[in-house]
């Protein structure tokens, strides 16, 4: 990377446009950037950094997104801008950046903020012109970072070697040195590796603990299955040897379970044999008892049968008479049916004749049928009269409907006339509301135009009042700061004059015999000057100078603040005028009140317009309804006349058809009931005559059947007849007696039963007790065997599950062991890591070793071959090792801490370290060539010889076509370095002067 040109406008202390031709300055290889303290030397480097990255180093960026970069000396209409032309990676680029800018408004008063702007252009050698590449902040930032290969922090450490930073780096402890190296070399990926390894270790450890917890749960279940006889290992999840201990305890438990199962099976076999023997004895006792009880029951049943023998013979005779009576049963049933039918027919005839008129009560069946036919014929003649009656009812309904329509239309006409009578007054009132709301809306728009300017004037007046007090306070602070600056300058000049008067004594203090005098060159010093009382040394003068410069900075800052406050006061006064704030507030309040009232009145405009439109629409509907009601009323007159004529004709016809009845329907109902009664009476008379003849025939057949069956009268046959229930019951009694008699005879004839009856009674209770004891012992033995088998099976299952878990966890255990070892090694906590060095520290130590080697090449020249920087991995205190930095003194041959170097030695060692670090970071960033470097301060601590050696080393950088800019206010450097860029400080801002180059 080589810088060509830098243009600065209204940036930092530079109020006007300034330019730096780096090509002219770089021609000499070394160039000096000098000027008084606070003039803006560092601001030139800030401008380079801002052009490349859009921000300045460290705390100088401030807040406000770059608005603090603007020069307080710049004119109001001048915008802050930085333009840098450079060559990087073989491409010539031009970067222009403008930070956010608060400028006066183009119209009206006050200020507005313009956003930051960025341009990137590239020079095209083929067409010899610049071409635009981008105007996006993000794209330009990514492009520059990619081309340079380093971040802003790396750039500020490598290209803009900052004052004091590398001296602190040289003396820093391992932790502070690691933070800086970490930012420069971006070793976050190695820290991420440490983090990922630690996370993986925790994850695998949790998985192993979870697997061990499951394994211990299986062990507890095995202990429960073994009845508490199993001993569990006293190990926690995750401890080594847990799996082997659980498997060993499970194997012992399985052996014990199998032994218990064998014992239980032997006991079960013995119990089964004993139970079978007692079962056989119980069966024999039960059989003997059964046979003895069977014989006794048979003897008792035979005695009961003998007692019921007479009843059995009577039942047999009753069954025989019932069988004879069954031959007469059909004739009896036929006679009973005929008698019932005749009674029902006679009753129906009596009921039907009771409903007839007295004249027809004694008529025969033929006379009744003829009267029924005459009534039916008369009923058929009334169908036309029924249709006329239904039509008359319809006419009445139609006339009633016409009356209802007439009343409804009359109500519509009256309501419309009443509403329309008030229409003009209603329309006038609604139109007045609309007009009033429209006027209020117009007034609100006019007041809204006046409202915003009034509010702005009021805000400006309040700011004017506040800034008036701030201006007076700022003026007092500026006056006080100016007086303090004058006093500090006078005090510094007095001390400087006193020091010059006693400079001989100060020079004589360093004289030794045999050493040439720095003034006259003599080696003998017979009468060296002595320091007088109150002598002013260099430190006192420098403290006074620092106090003077600090006072000057405070004075300049106070004057800038006073100018800013005055500008703000002028802008507020221009906006508000001379009108008092209270009067403006009262006017704004009155205007706001009037505006609110007008808005409130205008808010009813839409509602009033809608109400007027609804009223007009209602008027049109009512007029139309009134007209339609009149048309319908006229048409109903003709309809009513037609209906009245038709109604009169139908009423005359119905009067003739009804006779004495209330209506045709009532007359038809009378005729229908009469015909029905006559028809029913004729039918019942014929049915009664038929049933009487059938009853007479049935009596004759019944008398003949009873005689044939052997009964004297039909009544005797009826008494001997059995119904189904009595027959079944009698037959059941006969069958039961016969079955019981046969069964008793069979049992008494059995040989084994008779033999059992002759034996002693069976002792069934003793046999049952012995069998129950044997069954109980068998159940206990079987339960014990089943429990032992379940225990064995459960232990086998749990052991297999535990073994499977151990096999499944084996790869995870191996992985956890491997990951834990790697994580401990990377974190520096492993015993294998002798230096307790973290992985990130190890990488940084390698980088630091490269930096120390690169720095030593220049440090040897700067120190005339005396000092060498070496990397040390020794531990410091209780901390970790890896980032130590020592210096080897060739004069003593000893290695010592860098904190023991003197001020000048620390500077050139720090400079060598910074140059070496720049080389390593450059190589790390992809080998981007850095042709322009800046070194900020520190040369005042070197003696002449060391300064020459340091400048020789810096001048040697030109061998690789590099240019080095030294930022310093040391006067001796202005004599040694001819190419100079001077920053001149003034009350209107700093300016740049470039001379002695080319």
Q: What proportion strand?
A: 5-15%
Gap between N and C termini, in Å?
Answer: 20 Å
- How does the overall form come out from the CA principal axes? flat
Major sheet size, sense and barrel closure: 6 strands, antiparallel
Mean pLDDT across residues: 77
Question: Which value, in Å, is the CA radius of gyration?
Answer: 67 Å
| Record field, number of beta strands | 17
Which structural class best describes the helix and strand composition?
alpha+beta
Low-confidence stretches: none
Strand order of the largest sheet: 2-1-4-5-8-9
As a percent range, the share of helical residues equals 55-70%
Number of helices: 26
Q: How would you briefly describe this protein structure?
A:
By secondary structure, this protein is of the alpha+beta class. 68% of the residues lie in helices and 10% in strands.
List the helices and strands and how they pair.
Elements: E1 2-11, E2 14-21, H1 22-26, E3 30-34, H2 41-53, E4 81-88, E5 91-98, E6 101-104, E7 111-114, E8 117-124, E9 129-134, H3 137-148, H4 152-158, E10 160-161, H5 165-171, H6 174-185, H7 188-225, H8 242-307, H9 309-325, H10 329-354, H11 365-380, H12 383-421, H13 423-501, H14 503-508, H15 538-576, H16 581-602, H17 605-658, H18 664-709, H19 714-720, H20 724-749, H21 751-758, H22 764-827, H23 839-862, E11 867-872, E12 884-889, E13 894-897, H24 903-924, E14 932-936, H25 944-956, E15 963-967, H26 971-976, E16 980-984, E17 991-995
Helix pairs in contact: 5-24, 6-23, 7-8, 7-22, 8-20, 8-21, 8-22, 9-20, 10-18, 11-18, 12-17, 13-15, 13-16, 13-17, 23-24
């Amino acid at each position: 990377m080589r810088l060509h040109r830098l243009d600065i406008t209204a940036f930092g202390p530079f109020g006007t446009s300034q330019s730096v031709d780096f090509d002219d300055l770089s021609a000499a290889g070394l160039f000096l950037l000098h000027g008084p303290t606070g003039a803006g030397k560092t601001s030139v480097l800030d401008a380079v950094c801002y052009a490349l990255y859009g921000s300045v180093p460290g705390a100088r960026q401030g807040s406000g997104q770059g608005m603090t970069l603007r020069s307080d000396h710049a004119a109001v209409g001048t915008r802050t801008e930085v333009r840098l032309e450079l060559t990087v990676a073989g491409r010539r680029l031009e970067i222009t950046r403008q930070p956010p800018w608060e400028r006066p408004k183009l119209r009206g008063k006050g200020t507005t903020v313009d956003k930051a702007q960025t341009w990137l252009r590239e020079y095209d050698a083929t067409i010899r012109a610049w071409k635009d590449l981008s105007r996006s902040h993000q794209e330009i930032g990514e492009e520059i970072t990619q081309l340079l290969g380093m971040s802003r922090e790396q750039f500020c450490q490598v290209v803009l070697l900052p004052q004091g930073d590398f001296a602190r780096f040289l003396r820093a402890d391992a932790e502070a040195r690691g933070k800086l190296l970490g930012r420069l070399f971006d070793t976050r990926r190695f820290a991420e590796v440490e983090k990922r390894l630690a996370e993986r270790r925790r994850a695998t450890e949790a998985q192993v603990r979870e697997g061990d917890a499951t394994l211990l749960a299986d062990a507890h279940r095995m202990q429960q299955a073994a009845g508490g006889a199993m001993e569990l290992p006293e190990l926690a999840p995750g401890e080594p040897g847990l799996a082997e201990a659980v498997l060993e305890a499970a194997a012992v438990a399985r052996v014990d379970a199998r032994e218990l199962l064998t014992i239980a099976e032997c006991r079960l076999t013995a119990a089964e044999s004993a139970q079978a023997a007692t079962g056989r004895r119980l069966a024999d006792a039960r059989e003997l008892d059964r046979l003895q009880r069977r014989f006794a029951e048979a003897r008792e049943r035979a005695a009961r049968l003998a007692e019921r023998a007479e009843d059995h013979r009577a039942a047999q005779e009753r069954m025989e008479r019932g069988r004879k009576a069954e031959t007469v049963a059909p004739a009896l049933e036929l006679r009973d049916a005929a008698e019932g039918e005749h009674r029902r027919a006679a009753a129906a005839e009596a009921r039907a004749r009771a409903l007839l008129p007295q004249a027809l009560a004694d008529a025969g069946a033929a006379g009744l049928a003829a009267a029924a036919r005459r009534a039916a014929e008369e009923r058929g003649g009334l169908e036309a009269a029924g249709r006329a009656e239904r039509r008359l009812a319809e006419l009445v309904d139609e006339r009633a409907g016409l009356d209802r329509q007439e009343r409804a239309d009359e109500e519509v006409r009256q309501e419309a006339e009443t509403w329309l009578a008030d229409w003009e007054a209603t329309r006038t009132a609604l139109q007045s509301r609309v007009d009033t709301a429209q006027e209020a809306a117009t007034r609100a728009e006019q007041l809204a135009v006046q409202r915003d300017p009034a509010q702005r004037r009021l805000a400006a007046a309040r700011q004017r009042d506040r800034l008036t007090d701030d201006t007076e306070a700022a003026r007092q602070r500026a006056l006080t700061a100016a007086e303090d600056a004058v006093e500090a300058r006078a005090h510094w000049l007095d001390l400087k004059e006193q020091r010059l008067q006693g400079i001989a004594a100060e020079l004589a203090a360093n004289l030794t015999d045999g050493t040439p005098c720095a003034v006259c060159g003599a080696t003998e010093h017979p009468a060296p000057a002595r320091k007088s009382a109150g002598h002013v040394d260099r430190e006192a003068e420098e403290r006074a100078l620092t106090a003077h410069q600090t006072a000057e900075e405070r004075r300049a800052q106070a004057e800038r603040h006073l100018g800013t406050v005055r500008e703000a006061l002028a802008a507020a006064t221009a906006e508000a005028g001379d009108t008092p704030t209270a009067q403006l507030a009262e006017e704004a309040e009155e205007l706001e009140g009037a505006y609110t009232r007008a808005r409130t009145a205008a808010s009813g405009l839409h509602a009033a317009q809608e109400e007027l439109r609804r009223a007009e629409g209602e008027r049109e509907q009512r007029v139309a309804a009134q007209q339609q009601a009149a048309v319908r009323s006229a048409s109903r007159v003709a309809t009513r006349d037609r209906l009245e004529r038709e109604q009169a004709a139908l009423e005359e016809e119905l009067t003739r058809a009804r006779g004495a009845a209330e209506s045709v329907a009532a007359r038809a109902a009378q005729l229908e009931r009469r015909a029905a009664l006559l028809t029913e009476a004729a039918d019942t008379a014929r049915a009664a005559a038929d049933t009487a003849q059938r009853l007479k025939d049935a009596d004759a057949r019944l008398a003949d059947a009873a005689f044939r069956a052997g009964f004297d009268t039909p009544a005797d046959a009826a008494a001997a007849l059995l119904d189904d229930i009595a027959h079944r019951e009698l037959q059941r009694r006969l069958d039961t007696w016969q079955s019981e008699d046969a069964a008793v005879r069979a049992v008494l004839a059995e040989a084994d039963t008779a033999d059992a009856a002759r034996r002693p009674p069976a002792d069934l209770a003793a046999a049952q007790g012995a069998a129950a004891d044997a069954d109980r012992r068998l159940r206990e033995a079987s339960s014990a065997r089943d429990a032992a088998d379940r225990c064995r099976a459960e232990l086998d299952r749990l052991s297999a599950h535990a073994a499977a878990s151990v096999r499944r966890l084996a790869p995870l255990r191996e992985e956890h062991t491997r990951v834990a070892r790697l994580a401990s090694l990377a974190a520096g906590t492993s015993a294998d890591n002798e230096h307790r060095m973290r992985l990130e520290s190890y990488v940084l130590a390698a980088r630091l070793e490269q930096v120390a080697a690169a720095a030593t090449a220049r440090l040897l020249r700067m120190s005339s071959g005396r000092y060498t920087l070496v990397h040390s991995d020794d531990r410091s205190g209780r901390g970790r090792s890896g980032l130590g930095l020592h210096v080897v003194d060739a004069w003593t041959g000893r290695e010592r801490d860098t904190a023991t170097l003197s001020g000048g030695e620390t500077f050139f060692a720090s400079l060598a370290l910074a140059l070496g670090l720049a080389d390593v970071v450059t190589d790390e960033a992809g080998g981007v060539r850095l042709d322009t470097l800046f070194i900020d301060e520190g040369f005042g601590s070197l003696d002449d010889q060391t300064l020459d050696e340091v400048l020789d080393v810096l001048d040697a950088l030109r061998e690789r076509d590099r240019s080095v800019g030294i930022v310093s206010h040391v006067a001796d450097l202005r004599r040694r370095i001819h190419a100079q860029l001077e920053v001149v400080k003034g009350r209107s801002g700093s300016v740049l002067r470039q001379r002695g180059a080319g």
